[in-house]
Amino acid sequence: MQRAIALSALILLAGWAQAEIPAAFQGADLKLGERLMVEHKCNQCHAQKWGRDGLDIYRPKGRINSSSALMTMVEACNTDLGLGLFPEDVAAIAAVLNREHYHFSK
Length: 106
Ligand code: HEC
What we know:
This protein is mainly α. The chain has one domain. Helices cover 61% and strands 0% of the residues. The longest helix is centred in the first third of the chain and has 16 residues. The chain starts with a helix and ends with a helix. It binds heme C.
């Protein structure tokens, strides 16, 4: 019985901790996203046009204003550049960008 209570408390806490993360990014593989961004040199290319090692391109106050717009943008880069990323790769990258730059909660 006590175990059940402890368990439900844990589940509640876990739900609460994730509340700030958009549904599309829950369970995303952040380590995979980080690796893919290095592998595909996302920031190197952005850095040629934008300052700060390419990080200035990520503009949370720009035209990308939601997690789904962010997913669409990463998907567009994927298609344009012919990267051949799977949907879960795109979600993982978008989740990393969201954690570090955009901070959308939905
Ligand atoms: C060959 C160059 C190049 C590479 C490689 C590249 N991008 Fe981009 N990216 C661009 C350009 C150019 C823009 C600006 C497009 C615009 O503003 O219309 C852009 C814009 C973006 C934006 C929108 C930023 C904002 O807030 O407006 C995101 C997000 C993004 N790229 C993600 C990625 C990711 C993730 C990767 C790696 C998988 C990647 N890009 C690889 C050239 C590149």
